[in-house]
Each structure stands twice: as structure tokens, then as C-alpha cells.
Amino acid sequence: MALVPSFTNFILLWALTYALVFGSYLVFGAAFTWWSGRHPERKIQPRRDGQKRRNKEIKASARSLIVTCGCFAGGLHLQLMGYTLFAPWALTWWSAPLMFLGSVLLFDTWFYWVHRLGHAEPFKKYHLLHHQSVAPTVWSNYSDTFFDAFTQQSFFLFMPLIVPFPPAIFIAHRTFDHFNGMIGHSGFEFAAGPSSRAPWPLASVTFHDMHHSTFNYNYANHFSFWDRLMGTLHPRYDSAVLAMEEKIAGDRPAEDPALAVKRER
Ligand SMILES: [Zn+2]
Ligand SMILES: [Zn+2]
User: Which ligand is nearest to the CA of 124?
Assistant: First the structure.
């Protein structure tokens, strides 16, 4: 009998997750589009207008988020019900950031391999919808089929059952992934710097943008090390990040007031 209220709780959690994720997708997406539009110098593919696909991508996201949020709510619900291999570890000031980093590293590995699966036969046809966005925008993050949504996001369904991180870690990670994924698809570079090119492993916005514009490179999510290791990093990725840094720096007003005055004359 206890299964009935439990199932009701799961449905409520799923609905709440969907409302929060889809609602913040619309609000944050609109705000970020407005804000990034004020920085044309940061546009990665200036000749393409990805916003033309906005309505199609919002519709596709409304569908795929049913699966994404179902995976997350399912994992959280089962974990809260105690269906886990191990008891969750305690959350302390030092264990929380370590577990968060552990979850992000695990997800990056998961994402790299399921994403490569999505580029291989016979699964490729289920991943092509996401690649209709050649110049991605904030709206493209969830423009996925159910196959993409399930293979990529079922991390949050299975990991809470087998990895002893407490629910707060998975909630924080999914929240981070939500906004990071939208910014990572925005088409505007805000993360270019020495830490996002060789020899450092962080991925800038250009990293996944190049995945959309060139298709067969840069499969990972947060870091570039899986692509470097497996030989799938775009050969011009590091130089593209450096070129973007120089472009952004060149468009800034001169730091030296004397130079600024000279320019005004
Ligand atoms: Zn892909
Ligand atoms: Zn993408």
C-alpha cells in the first residue's frame, strides 16, 4: 500500500522539477539572450543567426525535458526512499566541494562516451535533431530527442543509487549543469582564458560551439581531457580560444587613459 503514496510523491517531484527547469530555462534564456546581445564582439559565429531556430528549439525542449526531469526526479526519489547501494556520505564544508567535483568529473566521463555513442550507427539518427542547431543558442541546450535526453541525463537516475553522494550534491550538480549547459550553448564566449586551452583541461563556450559547427570533434562537456586523450579534440580548438581572447581584448577600451584621450582626438 505504501507504493501508492510513494508513486504520487514521485509524480509531484517530477512535475515540480519540470516546472522549475522549464520555467528557469525560459526566464534565464530570455535574460541571457538580451545581455549577450550587448556583447557582439564575443559572438563565436558572427555570420550565423542561431536565434532563427528559437521557437523550434523551445518546443523540442518542452518535450525532451519530460525525460530529463523524469530521470532527475526518479533518481532523487529512489535515493530519498533509501534504494541505494551505500548510505550517503556526510556533507561537510570540505567533503561537499570534493563530492561536487567528483560528480562533475564522473558526469564528464559519462557524457563523453554516451555522446560518442550518439554519433555512431545505428544511434546517429536520434542525435541529429540536436545538430540542426549549427550555431547554437541558449535555447539549443535541451533541443534533443528522448534518446539524447535519456542517454545523457540518466546519469542522474542511476548515479544516486550507486555512488554515495548525498541528494544535495546531485541537486547542486544538476542546477550547475542546467545553467552551464545553457551558457555553453549560447554562442557567445565568456570563458576564454589560459585555463580553457592547453595544457589546462577546462572547456570554454567555443569548445561545444565547435562541436555544433564541425560535428565530429569535442564530445565532452566540462573538460577537454577526454577529447585530448582520445584524439577527438578539434585541431584548431586551442588556437580558436586564444584568438577569441585576443579579439575580446582588442575590442576593450584602452586601459591607459592617455591612449584613450589620444584616440578621441
Ligand atoms: Zn553531438
Ligand atoms: Zn549541444
Answer: 1
The residue range of the domain holding 142 is 3-88+101-264
Segment 22-66, tens digit of pLDDT = 999 999 999 999 999 999 889 998 888 888 999 999 999 999 999
Distance of CA 94 from the midpoint of ligand 2 (Å): 33
Overall pTM surpassing 0.85 (yes/no) = yes
User: Which ligand is nearest the CA of 216, by number?
Assistant: 1
Q: Which long-range contacts (CB under 8 A, 24 or more apart) does 199-203 make?
A: 201/225, 201/228
Is residue 95 assigned to a domain? Answer: no
Distance 44 CA to ligand 2 centre (A): 14
Cα-to-centroid distance, 82 and ligand 2 (Å): 34
The reply to whether 146 falls in a domain is: yes
The pLDDT score that the predictor gives to residue 190 is 87
Q: How confident is the model over 194-222, as pLDDT tens digits?
A: 888 888 889 999 999 999 999 999 999 99
204 in a domain, yes or no? yes
Q: Which amino acid is at 148?
A: D
Ligand nearest to the CA of 214: 1
Evaluate whether 140 touches 187 at the Cβ level (below 8 Å): no
Look at residues 124, 120, 141, 122 and name the one whose alpha carbon lies nearest to residue 64.
141
Q: How many angstroms separate the alpha carbon of residue 115 from the centre of ligand 2?
A: 10
**What total number of domains does the chain contain?**
1
